[in-house]
Specification:
Length: 235
């Protein structure tokens, strides 16, 4: 399930088995949800919690604004409750101009475990006009920007709980501005973060190349690029 809220790209998925009628999973999950946003703020941007077999993980992007982070997480929780009332697993990479965030739920421990699938793909509906643009040059510049963003995102910043994050703005020959963002959950290793983001980039190349931007989300990471500034961190 892929949805766009008020023009904001979002990656949202319900997976896994159904919640049994006599299970306490939903109640425990909702108990975790009730304090998830405040726990993320208290823990400087990332929180992982569990109650019996219910597990919830959430984060906001680096340099988040407190209220924007809370709003993003609460919005993601609301969507999970509405669209995944009977599924034990979900993840939602959501966001707007102020902040991006992740909320993930499972019925098993996932902390410090790299998870590559399933994925969400949300490419731009608009294609680059290859008849007027030098796509060979664009590909070269795009790959250079990917490598710059990947290097920034995987160079773990020990000063931040949200240690895996990169946002790069580049000027291409035929495009005045290209914006790219990558982020991983901070519980995995730098090598695992690089693997996860590399798989996101590869998926975009294989299935969405030629589109004017897009978002690929996996449970452990997210990759997004576009031709407009979609986060305040670019400004």
């Amino acid at each position: 399930l892929l949805q766009t809220f008020n023009g904001v790209k979002a990656g949202f998925l319900c997976v896994g088995s159904s919640i049994l009628s006599n299970s306490s999973y939903r109640e425990n999950r909702d108990t975790l949800f009730s304090s998830l946003a405040s726990n993320v703020i208290t823990n400087r941007g990332f929180y992982n919690g569990s109650l019996d077999r219910a597990h919830a993980l959430a984060l906001c992007r680096r340099d988040f604004e407190r209220q924007a982070c809370i709003n993003c997480i609460e919005k993601a929780i609301k969507e999970i409750k509405r669209s995944c009332p009977d599924k034990v697993e979900s993840f939602n990479w959501d966001g707007d101009d102020a902040v991006s965030c992740l909320v993930r739920t499972t019925d098993r421990p996932t902390f410090r475990i790299l998870t590559l699938g399933p994925l969400t793909s949300d490419p731009s509906p608009i294609s680059i006009d290859s008849s007027t643009k030098n796509m060979t040059l664009f590909r070269q510049e795009w790959e250079i920007t990917v490598n710059r963003t990947l290097e920034a995102a995987t160079a773990a910043n020990p000063a931040s709980v949200l240690k895996y994050y990169g946002a790069v703005n580049a000027e291409f020959m035929e495009f005045p501005n290209v914006y790219m963002m990558m982020q991983c959950t901070p519980d995995i290793t730098s090598g695992e973060c690089k693997e996860c983001l590399g798989e996101c980039v590869k998926y975009f190349r294989d299935f969405s190349w030629g589109k004017q931007g897009g978002t690929i989300g996996r449970p452990s990471c997210v990759f997004r690029w576009d031709l407009y500034s979609f986060l305040r961190s670019f400004r």
